[in-house]
Amino acid sequence: MRIHQHVNPLNKKYLVVPPMPKWSEVYAEPFLPLHLDIGSASGRFLIQLAQKNKGWNYLGLEIRQPMVERANHWKNEMGLQNLYFFFGQAHVVLRPLLESLPMGVLQYVTINFPDPWFKRRHQKRRLITPELVQTLATFLQPHGKIFIQTDVKELSEDIKNSFMNNCHFQTVDTPIEQNHFGVPTERENSVIRLGRYIHRILIERKTEVSKETHLTDN
Ligand SMILES: C[S@@+](CC[C@H](N)C(=O)[O-])C[C@H]1O[C@@H](n2cnc3c(N)ncnc32)[C@H](O)[C@@H]1O
Known about the structure:
It is built from 8 helices and 7 strands; from the N terminus they run H-E-H-E-H-E-H-E-H-E-H-E-H-E-H. By secondary structure, the chain is α/β, with parallel strands linked by helices. The longest helix is centred in the N-terminal third of the chain and has 13 residues, at 65-77. Residues 210-218 have low confidence and may be disordered. S-adenosylmethionine binds at residues 9, 39, 41, 61-64, 89-91, 112-115, 127, 185-188.
């Protein structure tokens, strides 16, 4: 199978919103707490988590369609009924995807090693934007967590700022030495092999914000 290393998320072929799955046909128990992994790539990280933690549902979102199809094939072969991979460009599909799920299930989000798009003219391709942060604020449950890893210091600072500029989030300010899932992602393994430092960010959805800020939500 030929899988591109990178795709341009701004390509207009990613503007289409695919039909949403029927969640009662996807998950054995659709009302379990949900862990969403954005940029799930091969899916191996979520496959291992779904095998370990039967009390959670897992959802991978990935823009490279062949990877999504292969990951769904693997999870079907393994008979995992708490895992699903969805193809799409997060900026386009995240909101309709979360709207389609049973209300209140989203409790954890991971974003592991988002593409840094170093060149200035490519930075608009980056995954974490104010709009994406606001979508997560709308659907993530109070005290829900977002765990982000990157080996790019400048990107980690931009990401922290994006969340701090949204009144619904606070960062948990202790340095995080380990990925606390006990399952490394594929990129994490290669970054560790290269001996590079990993910036790990834990963000929490606040319970309440003032009335005034609620009124300005979109
Ligand atoms: C550097 S890879 C990291 C993969 C994996 N999370 C890991 O840690 O091994 C970033 C992943 O995000 C996906 N991606 C990038 N932009 C995306 C977008 N806008 N929507 C969905 N997936 C995206 C890429 O296709 C790629 O699989």
